[in-house]
Specification:
The chain is of the alpha/beta class. Helices cover 50% and strands 9% of the residues. The chain is built from 23 helices and 13 strands. α5 crosses α20, α13 crosses α14 and α20 runs parallel beside α23. The longest helix is centred in the middle third of the chain and has 25 residues. The two termini are 43 Å apart. 43% of the residues are buried. The protein binds one RNA strand through α2, α15, α16, β13 and α19.
Length: 630
RNA sequence: GCGACGGUAGCUCAGCCGGAUAGAGCAACGGUUUUCUAAACCGUCGGUCGCGAGUUCGAGUCUCGCCCGUCGCGCCA
C-alpha cells in the first residue's frame, strides 16, 4: 500500500504524512530483521498514545509474545535493538510495563513534519492514499418533494456532507446523489387538492407552503371509502400512465421543491451532483424483477414479489417485499434499481446511504439481496455502507417540536440559530459593524447546528440544546471558530499573511506536492509561492511544554482523518479538532507569540500557521465556514 | 417474541484492534488580565463504566444471561 519508502524521517527532507502508519510498517520489517520467529505474523499495533507515554505506542508485542510463550519484555528488547537508523533519528523510545514500546518524536522530527505539511494541498496529498482512484456514491438528505424540509432532515444532510468531504479528502471521487422521495401515492391526493383549491398568489410567494396546504386539503377531502378517494387514485393512475397534465403538475412540484431545498443546501454548503429520485427508477424496476426472478432470488408470496434469505436467522422469515401484490413497485425495488444504476453508470467502488437507524433492517436486506444478485450476474460489487444515526430529541428526551406541537421547519431552525448567534455576537463584540456581526452570526449559528450534530457519535440519539451548541466552552463550533479567529488576529496584528491559504478546500486539483522548499526565504510576496511562510524563517527548536504539546497534537491529524474516514464517523475528527484547539488555547495563554526574539517568534508563528491550517482544513471538511474574526 | 441501537461523574457526552492511574464540557468551588480577542486559561471536587457470570497477563471494550430506554419486524419510505 505504501509506495514510498517507509521512513518516518530522513535526511532527504522527505517526511511521511501518517507517522503511525509508517512506524507500523517499519516495525513489521524490523521484526524480520531482528530474527523474531514467525515474524510475518507479527502485527505491531502502532497507535497514538496518551501523551504521558509518548506520541505512539506499539502494543503488538504482548499478544505476539504471549501466543508463542515468549517473554514479552525480552521480545520487545530484541525488536528495539534492531530498529533502523531512520527510527533512531526520529524517535526516543522506551519499553514500558509488560512490553509496550513507547515512541516519542524528537523535536527535530516534529519540526520536520510541521515544515513539510504546510498547506492544505500537502495534507490532502498525504491523506489521499486511502481512497485513491475510487469512486464513491453518497446518498444523503433525500427529502420528499412537495414538503418542507424539517428538523428530521438535518442529520442526514449534515453528516452526509461531512462524509462526502472526508471521502474526497482521502482521495475518492465523490458522487453526491440526492435520492428524492418524488413518487408515491401522496401525489394523487396532492393533484386532487391542487386542481380544486390551488392559490396562484400563494404558489408564487411560497410554493412549498402552498403544496403542503393543498395536500392536507386533498387528504382531508378523501377519507377512506369515499368517492373522492377514488378520484384521487384516478389522478395518481393518470400520472403513472403519463397523462400530460398530471405529469406537468408533478414536474412543477419537483421543480419548486428542489429550488426550496437548494436554499437550505446553500446555507449548509451542500451541492448535489444528481437528484435522482425514486421516479427516475420507474422504468428500471422491470429489469430488477426479471433478473431476481430468473435467478430465483425472489419469489412470489401472498401475491407479492419478495426475497427471503434462508441463511439469515431473521430474514429467512421476514420478507424483503419488492413488489406489492397489486403490482406496484415500492422502495425496495427502486433501491435495488438504484444500486445497479450506481454501479453501471457511476462505476461506484463504494456506496454510502445516510439515513436514520430505523431503516436498518431494510438496508440489511437490501444489501444481502444486492450481494447475491450482483454475484450471480458478475456485476461489480461495491462496498455497501448504511450510515445510520439516532434521533434528534428535545431536552425532555422527546421528539423535537415547536411550542404548539408542530414539526419544526429546517428553515426556521437555521434562522433561529443565526438569530441566537447574532444576539451573542452583539453582546460580546458590540464594536463590530452590523454587517460584520451578521456575517459572524451566520457562520457561528449554522456552524453550531452542524457541529453539534457531527461532534457526537452518530449512533446515539442527540439532544438538541441551543445553549450547549452555542457555548464558547467545550466541544462546540464557537469554541473552535474562536481559536481560528484568535490565530488570524495574531497575524493581522503583525501584518502577516498566515499562509495565503485561508480557504484550503477551494477547488484546486490535488497536486504532486513540491518536495523542495527554498532554504532562503524572501519577504512575504504572493508572487513568490513558497516565500509566503517567510515569517517562519529562522525558527528555533520547540522548547516550552505548551509548544511541544501543541506541535505533537498537530502531527496526530493524519490519525484523526484516517479514523474518521475509515469508520465514516466524523465525530472522531471533531474530537481531534477540539483537543487541538484546546492545546492551542493553552499555548496561547502560556507563550506569547509576538516576542522580540526572532527565533522564538518564528517558531511560534509556525505553530500558529499550522494550527490554523489544520483547524480550518478540518472544519471545512465538516462543512463549516471559518472566520477571521468574531 | 425476534432483532438493532443505547445505558460511563449530578447533567450532556468521549473512550479506536482488549492495553498503562476511565477522560472532556456544564454545574459547584478557588485562582489568572500593565502582554497577540478573558467568547480564554489553570486548579479543586466529582465514578459499583446498568446488573451478574465467563474468557485472559490485562475487560468500559469480547462472550453468555438478565434489567431499563428508543426503534424496527408483509404490501409507507
Amino acid at each position: 500500500m505504501l509506495q514510498r519508502p517507509a521512513l518516518p524521517f530522513s535526511r532527504q527532507m522527505h517526511v511521511s504524512f501518517n507517522l503511525a502508519a509508517d512506524l507500523d510498517t517499519v516495525l513489521k520489517s524490523t521484526a524480520a530483521a531482528a530474527g523474531l520467529e514467525d515474524a510475518a505474523a507479527f502485527a505491531p499495533e502502532v497507535r497514538t498514545a496518551d501523551p504521558r507515554h509518548g506520541d505512539f505506542q506499539a502494543n503488538g508485542v504482548l499478544g505476539y509474545a504471549k501466543a508463542r510463550k515468549l517473554n514479552p519484555r525480552a521480545t520487545a528488547e530484541k525488536l528495539v535493538a534492531a530498529l533502523p537508523d531512520s527510527v533512531r533519528e526520529a524517535y526516543d523510545f522506551t519499553i514500558a510495563g509488560p512490553g509496550f514500546i513507547n515512541f516519542t518524536l524528537k523535536p527535530t522530527a516534529l519540526f520536520a513534519w510541521l515544515r513539510a505539511h504546510d498547506s492544505a494541498a500537502h495534507l490532502r496529498a498525504g491523506a489521499a492514499a486511502a481512497h485513491a482512484n475510487q469512486t464513491w456514491v453518497v446518498d444523503y438528505s433525500s427529502p420528499n418533494t412537495a414538503k418542507q424540509m424539517h428538523v428530521g432532515h438535518l442529520r442526514s444532510a449534515v453528516i452526509g456532507e461531512a462524509i462526502c468531504r472526508l471521502l474526497e479528502f482521502t482521495g475518492a471521487k465523490v458522487v453526491r446523489d440526492n435520492h428524492l422521495g418524488d413518487w408515491g401515492t401522496q401525489f394523487g391526493k396532492l393533484i386532487y387538492g391542487y386542481k380544486r383549491w390551488a392559490d396562484p398568489a400563494a404558489l408564487a410567494t411560497d410554493a412549498i407552503e402552498e403544496l403542503e396546504r393543498l395536500y392536507k386539503l386533498g387528504h382531508n377531502a378523501t377519507p377512506d371509502g369515499s368517492p373522492a378517494l377514488d378520484e384521487a387514485r384516478a389522478e395518481l393512475v393518470k400520472l403513472q400512465n403519463g397523462d400530460p397534465e398530471n405529469v406537468a403538475l408533478w414536474q412543477k412540484f419537483s421543480d419548486v421543491s428542489l429550488a426550496a431545498f437548494q436554499q437550505i443546501y446553500d446555507r449548509l454548503g451542500i451541492k448535489f451532483d444528481h437528484n435522482l429520485g425514486e421516479s427516475f427508477y420507474n422504468d428500471k424496476v422491470e429489469r430488477v424483477y426479471r433478473e431476481l426472478t430468473e435467478l430465483e432470488i425472489a419469489e412470489t408470496s401472498e401475491g407479492a414479489l419478495v426475497v427471503f434469505h434462508p441463511e439469515h436467522p431473521r430474514f429467512k422469515t421476514q420478507p424483503f417485499l419488492m413488489r406489492k401484490a397489486d403490482g406496484a413497485s415500492n422502495y425496495a425495488s427502486t433501491d435495488l434499481a438504484t444500486a445497479l444504476h450506481r454501479v453501471e453508470q457511476f462505476k461506484a467502488d463504494g456506496i454510502v446511504v445516510v439515513t436514520d437507524f430505523r431503516q436498518g433492517d431494510h438496508f440489511e436486506q437490501l444489501f444481502l439481496t444486492v450481494k447475491k444478485w450482483f454475484a450471480a450476474k458478475s456485476y461489480r460489487l461495491p462496498e455497501l455502507h448504511h450510515v445510520t444515526f439516532g434521533a434528534v430529541t428535545g431536552e425532555d428526551g422527546k421528539a423535537l417540536k415547536t411550542r404548539s406541537g408542530d414539526v419544526i421547519k429546517l428553515k426556521d431552525l437555521l434562522n433561529e440559530a443565526e438569530d441566537r448567534a447574532f444576539a451573542i455576537v452583539a453582546e460580546k463584540n458590540p464594536d463590530l459593524p452590523e454587517a460584520g456581526r451578521r456575517d459572524i452570526a451566520r457562520a457561528v449559528g449554522l456552524g453550531a447546528v452542524q457541529y453539534a450534530d457531527l461532534s457526537q457519535n452518530r449512533s446515539s440519539n442527540y439532544v438538541f440544546s441551543w445553549d450547549k451548541m452555542l457555548a464558547l466552552d467545550g466541544n462546540t463550533a464557537p469554541y473552535l471558530l474562536y481559536a481560528v479567529a484568535r490565530i488570524h488576529s495574531i497575524f493581522r496584528k503583525l501584518g502577516l499573511d498566515p499562509a495565503g491559504d485561508c480557504h484550503p478546500l477551494d477547488d484546486k486539483p490535488i497536486p504532486t506536492p513540491p518536495r523542495e522548499k527554498p532554504d532562503v526565504c524572501h519577504l512575504m510576496d504572493d508572487k513568490h509561492p513558497g516565500a509566503r511562510m517567510a515569517f517562519e524563517a529562522g525558527a528555533t527548536a520547540f522548547e516550552t511544554a505548551a509548544e511541544l504539546a501543541l506541535a505533537r497534537k498537530l502531527a496526530k491529524f493524519p490519525d484523526a482523518i484516517r479514523l474518521a474516514g475509515d469508520t465514516l464517523r466524523p465525530h472522531f475528527l471533531c474530537l481531534y479538532l477540539y483537543e487541538l484547539a484546546g492545546e492551542f488555547s493553552a499555548f496561547y495563554t502560556a507563550d506569547k507569540v509576538a516576542v522580540d526574539d526572532s527565533g522564538i517568534r518564528a517558531r511560534r508563528l509556525m505553530l500558529c500557521a499550522r494550527t490554523l491550517l489544520i483547524l480550518e482544513t478540518g472544519l471545512h471538511l465538516l462543512g463549516l465556514r471559518t472566520l477571521t474574526r468574531m
